[in-house]
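Figure 2 data, in text form.
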Amino acid sequence: MKVLGIVGLDYCGSTIVSNVLSGLPGTVNVGESHWILDRNLRCKECGKAPCPVFHGTLLDKLKSADIENDSWWEIISLGTGAELIVSSDKLPKHYDRFGVPNYLIFLYKDPRANIFSWCKRKFEYDLSDAPSIISTEHIEIGINWWVNITIQMADWLEKQKSDVSVVSLENFTINTREMVRGISSWLAMEYDPSAIDYWNRELHYIGGNHSVKRMKPNQHFYNKIAIDERWRESISPQDSERIRNSNEIWALIDRIKEFSER
């Protein structure tokens, strides 16, 4: 059994990446599995309907597991028959809780896009009808959020003995086939090009920001893997340049990239 844990901030693109990787042979994507315990969530795509992967028996075993002594990932592997488990639990505290995966991907999104996504939800901007500019004050709070959480992740990753890879969501989006082939090789897993068109197959995972099955044609990620540049209409040019030229932000990303070279 192998476990791949995606580490990253909220809205970093982990749902897309984990759904793509779930198409590799012998792989199950558990998504944000901590929500099984923390919010009693079921499969995102199946909802209240019976799920063939995260069925009642498996969920009951996970809910009753002694996390201190039982292997969270082994319970999932035995319950699904998976050789590779992909988790997008993202935060170090969840991996410390369930067991640190033997493979870790630090997934990061263009900080401008990431900060935009966080601010939009944190401060409840309604952009459904027309774009509006996120205030500089809120952008400042968003930058502090990004930096503080990323420092915590960098400190945690530095201590881990797992194999670490660093993936830019934008690179993954532009070079999806090449990136998936490279990740498959790194994991010593068979590469399957059909994994890329994840919306064409049945999906099962916990949590995530959106349901693929219930996505509408007018939504940004409908049946495609695309760079998210919606931030361009909602971040002022001055704030955009401030983020893009932040030495602190890019120094943190460079620091984490060093872990993949160990």
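Caption note: The domain at 2-259 is CATH 3.40.50.300 (Rossmann fold).
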